[in-house]
Design brief:
Layout lengths: L1 E5 L4 H10 L6 E6 L8 H4 L13 E2 L9 E4 L3 H13 L3 E4 L11 H6 L6 H6 L1 E2 L2 H9 L3 E3 L3 H15 L7 E8 L14 H4 L4 E2 L8 H12 L4 E8 L6 E8 L4 H11 L6 E4 L14 E8 L4 E8 L7 H12 L19
Parallel strand pairs: 1-2, 1-4, 2-3, 4-5, 5-7, 6-7, 8-10, 12-13
Antiparallel strand pairs: 8-11, 9-10, 11-14, 13-14
Helix pairs in contact: 1-11, 6-11, 7-9
Length: 344
């Protein structure tokens, strides 16, 4: 199976190369990076020396014909156009941007700053969260890989929105992310002297992941549930914690059992007996979830941990690829754990 990675020199692109280097059913035939066009992978990223793709050269022009599966690790707006071109050629596409995640195209100007011109393809694209949309992903031509914050949050919420046991129309989400979530672009607040020994909230009222989360919640529950979402940056390279709070009439034992039953067959969901830590999921496709209840307030407290570059991006994209092409979804993924060679 021939694979192209477009935007291959960014954090998610490099993580895809790492994961796919272990995938014996895949041949990466093309790496696209305008910044490093003409350079060998191992000269840009020396840790790929003596690995299967060390001599692969970064290219600038996408071969739209030779690949079976295309991973897009691009900004949202250029992804809109390229996904359309590839879909028109019948290619399988996994888009790691937000270009096809939200069904309501009217949300794109408000949250992403551009008009979405491909409503029909937007409707056909499948949201790539396997634990919720596995059967749709199996038949999909275009998969919109979820964002990292929505992955951590929606997996923490899915059992209770599916079973309709939230007794409020708002859930409160406080999330912590490693600095790599901002990408490789140079922004002052992510420079080492700024981020070291520091932590801060950003976009606390109108974060662009809010409509993505609310869209999926409505599709699962049929209800308009608002997400009161506050993201924070913490001084670690990678990893994400999402703490979700909502009111419920369930007892703690009922709540824990609900999560255990819902996720009992999921290969990458682990129900934790203590609040999860990001170091236990770093470099992997696992999501660890802790379930508790504050009986004094009647509020459930669900805490999830993922690797924002793994289950929040690249390894989830590989999981989606496996499902799309009929490979067992955990193949070549469950054995890859521990810290990344790029960001230990």
């Amino acid at each position: 199976m021939k694979v192209s990675i477009i935007g291959a020199s960014g954090y998610t692109g490099v993580e895809l190369i790492r994961y796919l280097s272990f995938h014996k059913d895949v041949e990466i035939f093309q790496l696209i990076s305008r910044q490093f066009s003409g350079k060998k992978l191992s000269s840009v990223y020396p840790h790929f020396t003596k690995t299967p793709y060390e001599d692969l050269i970064f290219e600038e022009e996408v071969d739209l014909d030779s690949g079976d599966v295309y991973f897009l690790c691009l900004p949202h707006e250029p992804s809109v156009e390229l996904v359309k071109k590839l879909a028109d050629k019948g290619k399988k596409v996994i888009d790691l941007s937000a270009a096809y995640r939200i069904k309501n195209k009217d949300k794109y100007p408000e949250y992403y700053g551009f008009e979405h011109r491909y409503g029909e393809l937007l409707e056909k694209a499948v949201y790539g969260l396997p634990e919720i949309f596995r059967s749709d992903i199996e038949k999909a031509g275009v998969v919109a890989n979820p964002g990292c914050y929505p992955t951590a949050t929606l997996l923490a919420l899915y059992p209770v929105i599916k079973e309709d046991v939230i007794d409020t129309d708002t859930v409160v989400v406080n999330a912590l992310s490693g600095i790599s979530g901002a990408g490789r672009g140079m922004k002052q607040q992510f420079h080492y002297p700024e981020a070291h020994s520091n932590a801060y909230a950003y976009n606390p009222v109108k974060h662009r992941h809010i409509p993505e989360m609310e869209d999926i919640i409505k599709r699962v529950s049929g209800k308009e549930i608002k997400v009161r979402f506050t993201p924070h940056i913490i001084p670690v390279s990678r990893g994400m914690i999402s703490t979700v709070i909502f009111e419920t009439n369930l007892k703690r034992e009922q709540l824990v059992e609900l999560y255990r039953l819902e996720y009992r067959y999921e290969p990458f969901i682990r129900i934790a007996s203590v609040p999860p830590q990001i170091k236990n999921v770093a470099g992997s496709n696992f999501c660890d979830i802790y379930v508790d209840l504050d009986e004094r307030t009647g509020q459930a407290v669900i805490i999830s941990a993922i690797d924002n570059l793994g289950k929040g991006a690249s390894s989830q994209a590989v999981q989606n690829m496996n499902i799309m092409v009929g490979i067992p979804e955990d193949k070549y993924l469950k054995d890859i754990s521990g810290s990344s060679i790029l960001f230990p």
